[in-house]
Amino acid sequence: MVRMSADERRESVIRAAVSEFARGGYYGTSTEAIAKRVGVSQPYLFRLFPGKKAIFLAAATRCVQDTTRLFAEAAEGLEGEEALDAMANAYTDVIAEDPERLMMQMQVYVAVAAAEAAGDHEFGEAVRAEWMKLWEAAHLPLGADVDTTTTFMAYGMLINVLVSMGFPPEHRIWEGLYPSAGAKGRLERQQ
């Protein structure tokens, strides 16, 4: 059996943390559950990360970075409406295929709000910095137009809410979104 390096182990902790925090949120997830999922002891976990908050922040950062990368890859070489459709399609597909990703995003928003309410602004600042990179990943391919980017991000957040609430793809609520975001668009892309 090959031993993992500290970086590889750290990466496995982040992946496990995303899964655990996606389901239980910051307050409902124990570091013990994360350590168990990875197959390490809690003391070893705390050699990799100074505490639960650092683990959550690493998972939150990864979650936003993954979406930023998704947008950048989807829009590569495209601009305007073509970039918008490519990013919307890629995002809609990934959250449909990987619900943990969406659940983690939702947990991140809740955790930032809770931290801010408790007076912890450092956590929110770190997440907001990553989210601004996400904004830019959409903003530039959309022609750096603030209104278009705002509309795109707003639709994305609406998609997050509808999917997290369990609206099935064929529900009429999807009809008003980007044509490619609804059930018909997903079916067309799969064919």
Helix content: over 70%
What is the CA-atom radius of gyration, in angstroms?
A: 18 Å
User: What is the 3D form?
Assistant: globular
Series of secondary-structure elements, N-terminal to C-terminal: HHHHHHHHH
Total beta strand runs? 0
Q: How does the major sheet shape up?
A: none
Distance linking N and C termini = 42 Å
The number of helices is 9
Question: How would you classify the helix and strand content by structural class?
Answer: mainly alpha
Strand content: under 5%
pLDDT averaged residue by residue: 90
Low-confidence runs of at least 5 consecutive residues: none
Task: List its traits.
mainly alpha, 9 helices, globular
Characterization of the model:
There is one protein chain. α1 packs across α6 (99-117). The model has no long low-confidence stretch (mean pLDDT 90). Helices cover 76% and strands 0% of the residues. The protein is built from nine helices and no strands. By secondary structure, it is mainly α. The protein has helices at residues 6-28, 31-38, 42-48, 52-75, 80-97, 99-117, 121-139, 146-164, 183-190.
Layout: helices, strands, pairs:
Layout lengths: L5 H23 L2 H8 L3 H7 L3 H24 L4 H18 L1 H19 L3 H19 L6 H19 L18 H8 L1
Helix pairs in contact: 1-2, 1-4, 1-6, 4-5, 4-6, 4-7, 5-6, 5-8, 6-7
